[in-house]
Specification:
mainly beta, about 5% helix, 3 domains, Immunoglobulin-like, seven-stranded antiparallel beta sheet, five-stranded antiparallel beta sheet
């Protein structure tokens, strides 16, 4: 399994473990979570790595693009040219990262945590932000603020969890240029998450619980009616998309890592679950 994913400006570090102690492992990557083609990730001069005597591994390889997801294969025999062996075993979880582009301060951006981390609070999730940045955590219409005061120091609301499927508002300090925010972590099997929205077109601040791109229906919203609205933050301004009965106008394409505002006629809830097979790479989504 993959235990953690750490991303720097140039490299990705994967740490994990396997019961196949002393065996071999190889890493495969996909740009999007539901890609059908997963590509072998070479690192160093070898086609694969060697698991430690306790089954652990640490793999460091170049960062490629703004988002990527990983599966690990292990085997008692060596992999060659990225080709899996007949004795392969798939990691039962997925690791990865995605990037949210924040607008120049003090314009706000809705940001969603769509991965699992061991510590899910502003520190360390948002430690890459410059001092003076604010993170607004919204619960039931109540907004709580954490402000970064130093390299790893925060004041205000610092003990509230920001689990997978939780969205916040991020505001850079005035005068700070637009910058990327990278969120990394894992996705575990059999871990469905449920979201909800108020009816009567009340404002609901929500997001996808998985790092997916698409309109609200694709992300799992069960019912939309003519006149329902989806609000996206565009360059610090809330821009509404209205459902006309067949489509959203303008198109409501929610990006990976993006929170949004939903105003629907009928109160509803929806669940997203990632299906991670143990005998192939292709992932699928259950929405119910």
């Amino acid at each position: 399994m993959i235990d953690s994913v750490t991303v720097s400006s140039n490299n990705v570090t994967l740490k994990g473990s396997s019961e196949n102690k002393g065996g071999h492992y190889a890493i495969f990557a996909a740009t999007n979570l539901l890609d059908s083609a997963w590509v072998f990730v070479p690192y160093g001069t070898d086609y694969d790595g060697i698991l430690e005597s306790d089954g652990s591994f640490t793999a460091i390889f170049p960062k490629n693009g703004d988002q990527q997801f990983y599966r690990v294969l292990t085997s008692t025999t060596e992999f060659a040219d990225g080709v899996s062996s007949s004795e392969e075993a798939f990691s039962f979880n997925v690791g990865g990262f995605y990037t949210v582009q924040l607008p120049a301060g003090p314009a706000p951006e809705y940001v969603a945590n769509q991965l699992e981390q061991k510590i899910q609070r502003v520190n360390p999730l948002f430690n890459a932000l410059p001092s003076g940045s604010r993170v607004l955590i919204i619960d039931g219409g109540i907004s709580r603020t954490a402000t970064k005061t130093g390299p790893t120091m925060w004041s205000g609301t610092t003990t509230v969890d920001i689990p997978r499927g939780k969205e916040v508002q991020v505001i850079l300090p005035t005068g700070v240029d637009s910058m990327p925010l990278v969120i990394s972590g894992t996705l575990e099997p059999n871990d469905p998450k449920t979201k909800s929205a108020f009816g009567d077109r009340e404002e609901s601040f929500t997001c996808s619980t998985l790092p997916l791109l698409g309109n609200p229906q694709y992300l799992g919203v069960t019912t939309v009616a003519s006149g329902d609205r989806c609000g996206q933050m565009i360059n610090g301004n809330l821009s509404n998309r209205t459902f006309t009965g067949t489509l959203w106008s303008p198109a409501a394409n929610i990006k990976v890592g993006e929170g949004f505002v939903l105003r629907v006629t009928t109160a509803q809830s929806w669940t997203q679950e990632l299906v991670i097979p143990d005998d192939r790479f292709e992932l699928s989504i259950l929405k119910y």
